[in-house]
Write a structure and sequence with these properties.
With 182 residues, the chain is mainly alpha-helical. It has 2 domains: 1-119, no CATH class; 120-175, no CATH class. The protein has helices at 2-14, 22-31, 33-50, 59-80, 88-98, 104-118, 123-138, 140-143, 149-170. Helix 1 runs antiparallel to helix 4 (59-80), helix 2 runs parallel beside helix 4 (59-80) and helix 3 (33-50) runs antiparallel to helix 4 (59-80). It is globular and about 45 Å long.
């Protein structure tokens, strides 16, 4: 449920009111996980199209990008999970996320708090994130130019693909039936 709260609050912070469309997606996911996943995919594509690409080298743009990405990631977790109960960790994180309406960095603090408390953060993930940050620091002159946002997106996308392949190779994915195909 915290992902739904995060997408609504991030919509207000980023002034992207299309993110409020997360409520029907969430309701569809309660009815059927498969419908929810399809609706989420369409929702994420639509909302991403409405947002403006920005450079990660400018503080405000970086904060906005992190707010957008973390809210969508947490909302995906809500769409895929069957658990709706609110835990103590969710309440604390929700308060921090809500305070993001006043100070946007508090939204990120709430997200980091929730991710650390709920998900296992392994050394491999920290090394991958450290490598990604090192790439952005080392190649700042090449990436922080006019039109460099597309290059930054390519690097972030390749990082996501590499992480997905690494996860598949290591076998850390749960086997789940999708669309009940037999």
């Amino acid at each position: 449920m915290i992902g739904l709260i995060a997408t609504v609050i991030s919509g207000f912070i980023l002034k992207n009111y299309f993110m409020l469309l997360s409520l029907p997606v969430f309701l569809l996911s309660r009815k059927s996980r498969d419908l929810g996943l399809i609706a989420y995919s369409l929702y994420a594509l639509f909302v991403a199209k409405q947002s403006v690409g920005a450079s990660v080298y400018y503080y405000e743009d970086l904060v906005n990008s992190l707010i957008f990405a973390s809210a969508l990631l947490l909302f995906l977790n809500d769409v895929l999970s069957r658990n709706v109960k609110g835990e103590r960790v969710e309440v604390i994180a929700s308060l921090l996320i809500l305070s993001g309406l006043i100070i946007p960095e508090m939204f990120l603090a709430g997200m980091v708090f929730y991710f650390i408390m709920q998900f296992k953060v392994s050394l491999h993930i920290l090394l991958l994130l450290g490598g990604l940050m090192a790439i952005f620091v080392l190649f700042e002159k090449q990436l922080n130019v006019i039109g460099g946002t597309s290059n930054q997106i390519v690097i972030l996308s390749s990082f996501a693909i590499f992480t997905s392949i690494l996860t598949l190779i290591r076998g850390n994915l749960k086997k789940v039936d999708v669309f009940n195909i037999k």
